User: Fold this.
Amino acid sequence: MKNKELPFGQKMHFPNASFGLKRKIILLAAIFILAVILGILKGSVNLSFLELISRENRQILHLRFARVILAIVASSGLSVCGIVLQAILRNPLAEPYLLGTSSGAGVAAVIALTLGAASFYIPFAAFIGAILTTLLVYYISRERGKIGVHSLILSGVIVSIAFSAIILFLLSTSERQTLHGISWWLWGNLEVFDYKLLFAVTLIVALGIFVTYLFSQDLNAISIGEEEALHLGVNVELVKKILLFLVSLITAAIISVCGVIGFVGLIIPHITRLVIGPNHRLLIPVSCILSSAFMLLCDSFARTLFSPSEIPIGVITAIVGAPIFIILLKKSEVK
Assistant:
């Protein structure tokens, strides 16, 4: 079978777990562990380790643990969604919000905030908005019962632009207090207000990633090309529908609890491919480790840069992620 190029010029070859590859994975795991420790020890409130584990600060410790869990869940889900979309759409610019989920969730959340809904209902409204928007994009992009790749991308872009305009209109007519809450949500944050919601989102994302991993070999085949995948016995249309549904579900769940966090699902898949290759059996779990470390480090920076004030995590991921993506893009052009 003739190899074809993948995003950013990566060849379709599947390396064995060589010593060099194992060392890379161990190094990434070590960075992840250090990022977890840093996420627990550092925050907007400066406390020593002994102060943090004392009884009077036990609540702060619990909140930091929950925040670390949410960072791992959100980053892992976003990176896996990015991997799936880049493979299915064969587009290096594909990322979790391509299908309009972020704008749909944003419209629903902003409407709920504008109407003065209780904070408990905001995540639910965002989740419903994301799912309905994704269904709308699917409906628009259907071509004779099939999901057209180009139509799907264009439909997602058009719906995102339309809903973004609605969000801007609602922002321009909102009160200052509501405006601050909306802006904070749109730029993403990892504050945990409801442990039950965190558990539900963790369950959805974990199951979604697990099922996606079961399709690793199918993603390997589709990454080469749909015709080649068909020759290998892959039911391409069925696999695409299942995986796109999982991507939508995972993204909607993440957005509902922590808003829009950009660049994680765009750059982490590319970096992971450069480190361990394009084999999805390794790409998916390793990207979860790398994205978690990236998110935790960005969150620690967001909480401590202007302590005790906190920067929305989406601002930090954008500032860090944009130049990284430009470097990757230029590197691919050189190749």
